[in-house]
Amino acid sequence: MARSEIQTERMINYFIDATAKLIKEEGIKNISIRKIAKEAGYTSSTIYNYFSEVSHLIFFAGMRFVESYIEDLPKYSARAKDPLEKYLSGWECFCDHSFKEPELYHAIFIADLGEHPEELLKYYSSMYKFDTIQLDEELEIIFTEQNLSKRSKEVLEKYAEKGVFKKEDIEKLNEITILIWQGMIISLLNNRVNYTPEEASRKTMEYIRDITFNAANIDPIIKD
């Protein structure tokens, strides 16, 4: 790696470290470029040499706080008895963790990341690898594709190859599932519902299971 690349990576990590520290101490709502610059010991203009907007810094720093989700996913998957349960266990793990920290997961998976979010997501994936996580082929996509809609669709396609779903049902199932999850996150953040994290996860998974069983032609009552 060239010296300039090393320096760039070092500076980027300075600012991500500062952002992560502020998120932990003050919460995402209170983050600003000015505060990040002060914490890192640089000027705001220096930050803009590396990041075009504060949402990018929040995204990068926020990913450091999802380690418990990453660690728990194989555990949830291991409890599944068949491919359908394995697919649903992935969503259950995601719901259990995301509704405990809705601001964080909103910032990472829903918030506007600017004009080219795909490039940002690819860059993150290149910087941080999760090689120590052992997952089945279907779930490995979660760590190689950070776009929630795209990765969920790719997971569904893998299960469709196993005969769990019909390929023609994937697009609709994927969109409805994500809209259900997004709706709960936004409702929690806007104080439109008064659920505990556990209640929010349970209700969301109830809806996700219903539409998933329907797509798989399984009676939800029989499956439960």
TrEMBL record:
It holds the Pfam family TetR_N. The keyword Repressor applies. The keyword ATP-binding does not apply. GO terms for molecular function: DNA binding. Gene3D superfamilies: Tetracycline Repressor, domain 2 (1.10.357.10). Residues 9-69 form the HTH tetR-type domain. InterPro entries: Homeodomain-like_sf (IPR009057), HTH-type_Tx_Regulator (IPR050624), HTH_TetR (IPR001647). SUPFAM superfamilies: Homeodomain-like (SSF46689). Keywords: DNA-binding, Repressor. PANTHER family: ACREF/ENVCD OPERON REPRESSOR-RELATED (PTHR43479), ACREF_ENVCD OPERON REPRESSOR-RELATED (PTHR43479:SF11). This is TetR/AcrR family transcriptional regulator. It comes from Bacillus taeanensis. The lineage of its organism: Bacteria, Bacillati, Bacillota, Bacilli, Bacillales.
